[in-house]
Design goal:
The structure is a homotetramer of 123-residue chains.
Chain A: H1 11-24, H2 37-44, H3 48-60, E1 64-67, E2 71-74, H4 80-102, H5 107-117
Antiparallel strand pairs in A: 1-2
Chain B binds a DNA duplex (15 and 15 nucleotides) through residues 8, 10-12, 36-38, 46-50, 52-53, 55-56, 66-72.
Chain lengths: 123, 123, 123, 123
DNA sequence: GTGGTCTAGACCACA
DNA sequence: GTGGTCTAGACCACG
């Protein structure tokens, strides 16, 4: 639940990613209610406006829905989680492969690189 | 030599990355003179100040040296390229592994994911 | 808060030095918020970009931290001030001693020279 | 005889300083002929234009004289060395005292600082 | 309102 | 010609 204030990725997207990851890891489920903007702001120690933006962004992507007066909920649409997992996995892999190719590494070296770092800490 | 003007990564860092990649791929060598700030600005179609910043950043990282009135050169220090390659590779791999772990995937699934995407285009 | 526009030392570094000096003289404390880039630009009568550069440089040295949208703050890390004072003092002394030695003066003559000039104005 | 290519002090002045120091240390005497611009450029590994400028500057200060077709010589005027030594010493001391005062140090601390660093290497 | 990036254009010292 | 600094002014994402 830590934000990197110096990353080029905006904080509001970092927080969205964290929620996506929790969904994919089954720590969160379709239909679950997310903390209120205020509550979430306290938990993550960022400005409520930032959380507002996180929620808007997730709504735009169809991952959550806001119900007036009730709060923000994970969309119940079938397959939402699998879709998300599929999408995130693809993005991460594609980005990885592209960067490694730019470094001139072969597929074998990529696999090797992962073996070497797979034991690394969570940062 | 194309920049993505809409990426969240600043142009001046994108250009630095491109130079790093060319170094690692042996298209550029220690001791080589980089194009002058103005020349590079024309090639990359950005403002000279942006290139200035690229070069400053690379100097800060010890990859290049500037000699007043003469130009900017790749550092001649032995091992600079391997060091750089090592560092860039590590960064990319660690980031990948971390993200995949956050998606709850095992090492096997990571390797599989790469196999699936390794044939993808260069961007 | 005056800058010397004709010094060979860049303005952005002169301003950084002034802030360092204020920190060391306890006129500024860890955790303090510095004036915003624009505000500082007005105070020092230079362009905001110049202040931006001052702040970047200080961040690079670990003296300040910027929090996006909030401002720039003196780093809270313990010992930051003593470290800085120590470093600045060392730099000044070493440079002095080196130059005096190049003039062929003995330690006694150095001490004497200081006695003679210690009453001089602050510039 | 080393130049610092990254100092804010221009190379041509660094070289002038080195000559001044040699004069003051009696390694060089009034009436001595300095190496030709070309020769000096080779010795110091800088561009001949830079040496040209060094010589011009020293001439402007009355330390050297150029005699057409013969070369550049240290001025023979009486007292030139003592004057120079006096001036350089004063400049170095004043600058030192000013900087130390800006750091909020007392005269005692200055003397102490020198004691501590007087044994330090020549850089 | 905050910092960050970028452009355009200028001037300078240096080589 | 080279890099370095500075200004002016703009736009942007973020908080």
């Amino acid at each position: 639940m830590k934000q990197d204030f110096h990353s080029s990725k905006p904080i509001y997207l970092q927080i969205a990613d964290q929620i996506f990851f929790r969904l994919v890891r089954k720590e969160l489920f379709p239909g679950d209610k997310l903390p209120s903007v205020r509550e979430m702001a306290i938990q993550t120690k960022v400005n409520p406006n930032t959380i507002q933006r996180t929620y808007s962004e997730m709504e735009r992507l169809g991952i959550v829905e806001t119900r007036r007066g009730q709060g923000t909920f994970i969309t119940e649409k079938a397959g939402i989680v699998d879709e998300l997992k599929e999408r995130l996995t693809r993005e991460v892999c594609e980005s990885f492969v592209m960067q490694m190719k730019e470094l001139g590494l072969t597929k074998e070296e990529m696999l090797e690189g992962i073996e070497k770092h797979a034991e690394g800490g969570r940062k």
